[in-house]
Amino acid sequence: MQAETYLLNSTMQTTISPDDISLSKSLYQLIISRIDGEKLTGASYLQAQLELVQKGIGGFIIFGGRRDVVTVALRDIQSAAEIPLFIASDVERGVAQQLQGGMPFPSHMAVAAGIDMHRHEDIYLLSDALKAFAAEAADVGINMPLFPVLDVNRDADNPIICTRAFSDDPATVAALGSHYIRTLQSCGMLTCAKHFPGHGDTSTDSHIELPVIPKSRSELMDCDIFPYHEAIKAGVKCIMIGHLLAPELDDRPASISRKIVTDLLRTELGFDGLIMTDALNMHALAGVTQLPVSCMQAGVDILLHPIDADAAVAELKSAIGRGELDPSIINSAVARILRTKKELVGPPVLKTGHPGAVAARLAGKSITLVDHRLGTLPLYDPENTRLVLCGDVGRHDVSPVSCAFPHHLSLDDAMSGCDHAVIFALFTSVAAWRGSSGLPPEEIKRIQAAMQNAKQSVVVSFGSPYVLRHFPNADALIAAYDASRFAQGAVIGCLGGAFGFNGRLPVSLSRGDVRAD
Length: 517
Description:
By secondary structure, the chain is α/β, with parallel strands linked by helices.
């Protein structure tokens, strides 16, 4: 089935340049503004977005909504644009991450657990999955998926990266990230690697406050920045700057640091593509005055998700009028934007197969048996097995595992003792503004107490694998990396012996927290 082609058609002249656009429209071209998909059914809200299009907005980032509604609205919005729009979205785990009715794909860490880049059959499977994702994204109207995540997750308590990262190994991150970039861009997508110079080695969420990365320049270059260097070699079109402070690189946050954006990324690493900020509504830079101006002075091209697009343009225009912002900076940024948008014109993406089939195969390959005692698995008898749901249960559809193991216990009941094998299904989430990707300390203690009173304990993490380090005395520890229906189905099959455990742990857990092999 051929994807919709409206994203790839435009009235933009091939000779268009910043000189052909008014100052006001040039400034709007710098901005990717937010669209709430749930609000697109409102005529006034849709009209407000169309008014931004008429002003020359560079694009939109879509959050939430129903797939069918968003698809129609984006078609109308894109058709109204004189210059093609970037339609961005945080869809690292597939279109379903944002839109109801989309297909879920495994997290980056699940992919790293299941895919061996030295095996041709694994590479073909990953390529098929990425092509299926690209086809679905194009059907919806997304042309700028905001991934791959190239952060090297070195902090087990990282609240905002965690399973969004491929691994804690920079070579693994670089290899998988580069494959994502080459494959998706061959399908007409515009990839955006993030979060330069690296958000993986911190326990702070930049949505809430400014993370500090206290590493030497050589450590940063060898570990955190290495995947971006490889991504540039792979031809990545866009790189997102994280709201981070790396004191050995500059005493200013990366988003407003000319040393990091221009001197390091643009000049030293030789990146000539688009440089985008992380969302400007995040609290990490809450104390920075004239934030859009400061970002442009640092050398970025795109301002992502300012609180108010019109106010950001007014601020930029005023700074130019006062002589604080050189118009040549704007011209250079707009030239890169127009050059990249011209490259969006091309053949439509073709669907290569049912996306659910490849997503399920990927999930099945990722399930990892981290540790176990002989004789614990398989669990052949669901009738004599009890299930305890823990963590962020309300944020996930837990029906697959709940139906497979219909005899449930509350955590309180499990603490009182159980003469059966007990599966502790841990559901954790990586989400902005929460400040944690793990389990609360009190819940960890209660699970540990319940394990001691169970005949047999199997702990399955549907999310962060790092939570498993708290349960070294479990009879089996299993990492599933996310909570999609495909991941739950794969775990069910592995627990019952229908499937083998094929995944490999992509990150290191503390040696003292789990039993040695």
